[in-house]
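Reviewer 2 asked us to include a model.

Predict the structure of this chain.
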Amino acid sequence: MKPLLTQALELLLGPDVVSIRAKEDLAGLDRAGLPPIVSLSPSHELSKVLRHKGYTHFRRFVSLPSRDAVRWLLPIGNAGGTVEGTQIYVPHRWLPRAAKELFIAAIKMGWNGALLPQVVIASTEPLRLETLVSSVTGVNAPLFALSFGRRPAVRKLTVQAMHPEGGVLGYMKLPLTECAMERVCHEASVLERLWGYPALHPHIPRLLYAGAWNGSYMLFQSPLSGEIGPVNITAAHTEFLETLWNANPVARSGQSLVEEVGRKWDNRMASLGSAWDDLGQEVLRRAALGLNGETVRCGISHGDFAPWNTRVQQGALLLFDWESAQWEAPVLWDLFHFSLQAAVSLAKKNRSRFPDDRTAKSSYLLYLLSSLMQFAEEDNWAGVDHRKKILLDALQETACVQTEERNLMTHTVRSILSANTHKH
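Predicted model (structure tokens):
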């Protein structure tokens, strides 16, 4: 199997790209028609030979944290572009934030890639990628920063396109696996459909381009400006969610929701064995009892509503990464997800208690089972184990939610349930 860096760059640049390490590797370039070059061991001498052969366009990157365990490629040679490139990584935890701030300070003091592995992409003319960005945004000679996903099963290459004089132009996603392909294609269709609701325009990215790319697929979307989103549910969150839910309001029977989750469980989790099947069937049985004869307020769900997917600008919440969106999911699911993700990933404690409501608790069980399936699809077995533990606790306790890390703000959920009562 090809190294991740090589695989991603071939997807980005096309199958004709040639990887070289030394000038001896250049012997057949003239006969090959001078294709784009990627050098993982660039040197001044190699660049000199390439210029002599007619290569006039050079893009230099530093590979972080290393070449073999690459997470990001940041452009170098332009301090402003390097600093701008760091926007592709926005950590919430204080330690990574502090490390990023130190890194930016070093760049501003003159560091330009020394002591870290570098990558050079050379060509005789603008890359197809640059031509696409120029045609969509009107900006020539854009800069790029690259991010390599962490989950192999759903890995995507994310490319941040930037103006050479500063400013992010947009983000591109290129899937590196079949499962990632499904998600990126789904996100493109979601953004296109969401744009049909004018009330959502200030809150979501705009689809700039979506289509075939080097035998795969590419999604190019506009950036979202603003400060990093808070780790607690605020008025901005609830206002946005109400706008989102009202864009496609649906009243669904509890039975239809149980059946839908049950079908997905049968299709995705059957191979895990009888113990998992018993867990799923018991959750579905409990949820069916709790939702018997009930109507559940549903609507558009983001599917990965979490602090790191949000920005706040002038008091309004902005939301990106729509690849897990659903059109007719229970409205409480996004709130459940936000609370759990903040608790687990950010060690955030919520002190308010989840309301003792039969419909809400049954919906929570279905959410947990659904999110467990999503984590399994991603090969995120730590996430699967965590959801399994919560499910087992929920089945053993009278109250569906007991521990602090699984609480939601009571008044938020009650207001939604009250709205459900009045509307349906």
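DSSP finds 14 helices and 16 strands in the chain. The chain has two domains: 4-224, 235-423. We have added this to the supplementary material.
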